Amino acid sequence: MSNRRRSRIIAVAVGFALAFAVGLTWATPGSGTQSMLIGRATFEEAFKVKRKARTIDWEVEVEAKPALDVAVAMVTFQPGGHSGWHRHPGPVFISVVAGEMTFYEADDPSCAPVVRQAGQGFLDTGEHAHIARNETTAPATNVVTYFVPPGSPLRTDAPDPGNCPF
């Protein structure tokens, strides 16, 4: 191998290492949380389901092209625990099943809290970064349902957008 080729390989390797280190510096990993994946399955066929109740004013529509992974996890947040800033490749339905959670959106310049208590849900559309925090003195538990492209990671860490004081 020539010295020129060896120098190029080393330069590329150093570049990747620096990019990885910078990415870790910008990421905001969670703290005080425990996550347990309950299950994940791939729905390989494209589908469209539309359901309208006949007796009440209610309807729902779900469509996936060409396929969809559905994953369910239980996430427990200790008092003061948080998810870190992150995003998802698809929508996420968060059911608060115990305690109270507070959610913040990266694209909200006022950093307005969205508080959900046990029995309430929060919909993350997956289009931007956000953070979930337990700002109480008691543990909180969420059941989280992810809708993502097949094989995709369920979440990707994101940098702190700087819009919130914490």
Oligomer: single chain
Estimated radius of gyration: 20 Å
Globular, elongated, flat, extended or rod-shaped: what is the shape? globular
**pLDDT < 50 runs, ≥5 residues:** 7-25
Distinct helical segment count? 1
Task: Provide an overview of this structure.
- The chain is mostly beta strands.
- The chain has one domain: Jelly Rolls.
- The chain is 14% helix and 47% strand.
- The protein has 1 helix and 12 strands.
- It has one helix at residues 3-26, and strands at residues 31-43, 47-52, 59-64, 68-82, 86-87, 92-98, 100-105, 114-117, 121-124, 130-133, 140-148, 156-157.
- The strands form 4 sheets. The chain has a 5-stranded antiparallel sheet, with no helix packed on it. A 3-stranded antiparallel sheet has the order 8-7-10, with no helix packed on it. It has a two-stranded antiparallel ribbon with strand order 2-3.
Features:
166 residues; mainly beta; 5-stranded antiparallel β-sheet; 1 helix; globular
Topology:
Blueprint: H1 3-26, E1 31-43, E2 47-52, E3 59-64, E4 68-82, E5 86-87, E6 92-98, E7 100-105, E8 114-117, E9 121-124, E10 130-133, E11 140-148, E12 156-157
Antiparallel strand pairs: 1-4, 2-3, 4-11, 5-12, 6-9, 6-11, 7-8, 7-10
